[in-house]
Amino acid sequence: LSALEILHCVGWVHHDVSARNILCMGQMGKLVDLEYAKHMDSTTVHEVRMGMLGFMACKVKAQKYLFMAPHHAPHSTTFTASSRFNPLHDMESIWWISMWVLYYHVDQD
């Protein structure tokens, strides 16, 4: 989480947080594969669905806004380049990785 915090503090998002992009080294994890990292203000539009779908933020996977009250919904439910990806999406990926580890890799005895 420290690596993501630093990345987000300087205005970047990883854009591909998944179990395969976190390397465990002893008691420490390393965030790798910054190939798709980009500045939060980036207007590039060709990288919408990078990464593993199982760990991707729901809104990014669906490529539309979800769970918004009708009076707060934007005029269009499709993403624009400036609102497509933000730090919360990286954090949601961490949530999905945690759930995956909890349900598939913790001893059930």
General description of the model:
The strands form 2 sheets. A two-stranded antiparallel ribbon has the order 1-4. The protein has a two-stranded antiparallel sheet with strand order 2-3. The chain has helices at 2-9, 58-62, 87-105; strands at residues 12-13, 22-25, 28-31, 38-39. It is globular, with a radius of gyration of 15 Å. It contains 3 helices and 4 strands. The longest helix has 19 residues, at 87-105. It has 109 residues and is α+β, with helices and mostly antiparallel strands.
Quaternary structure classification: single chain
Distance between the termini: 29 Å
- The helix/strand series, from N terminus to C terminus, equals HEEEEHH
Mean pLDDT across all residues, rounded? Answer: 78
Largest sheet: 2 strands, antiparallel
Helix content: 25-40%
Structural class: alpha+beta
Q: For the largest beta sheet, what order do the strands appear in spatially?
A: 1-4
Count every helix, treating DSSP H or I runs of 4 or more residues as helices.
3
Total DSSP E strands: 4
- The fraction of residues in strands falls at 5-15%
Please give the radius of gyration in angstroms: 15 Å
| Uncertain residue segments | none
Global outline? globular
